[in-house]
Amino acid sequence: MNNKIRKLLLRMGLVVIVAAVTGCAGIGAQWNLPPEEAVRLRAQAWADDLMAGDIEGAWALTSPTYRQFSTWKQYYTFVQGSGRWTSATVDSVQCVEDVCDVRLMIEYDIKRMNMTNRRPLDYKWVKVDGDWWLHVPAK
User: Fold this and answer.
1) Mind listing the domains of the chain with CATH numbers?
2) Are the beta carbons of 135 and 100 closer than 8 angstroms?
3) How far apart are the C-alpha atoms of 125 and 100, rounded to whole Å?
C-alpha cells in the first residue's frame, strides 16, 4: 500500500472516530465517564453548536423538561448574543451529586471600540435519565 493511500485511510478512520465521539448524545452515560468529564464534553459541544450558529443543536442539549415546553426557535432568545462570540471554551466544571456548575470563557469583538473582550459565563448542568443537560432558568 502506498503512502498516500495509507494517510488517506488513517484520516478517514480519524474522522469516523471523531464523528462517533462527538455525535453521541449519551456520551457520559454510554462510556461511564466521570461527571466532570462528561459535562465538559457536552458543554463544549453546546458552545461549539452556538459558535457554528446551530441553535437547534444547542437546544437539543437543554434539559428534557425545557425542551418539552420550548421550541428551538424560542430558545434563540436565550442565546442570541452567542452569534458575536469569537471563541468559547469550557474553563471549569464542578459537580455535586446531579448538578454541575460550568464556567465558560467566551471572547467577542467590540467593533465600536476595536477591541476583543473576554469574560466568563456560568451555567448549570443537571443529570436527568442518566445523562447531562443544560438547565435553562425560567424567565
Assistant:
1) 3-134 (3.10.450.100)
2) no
3) 5
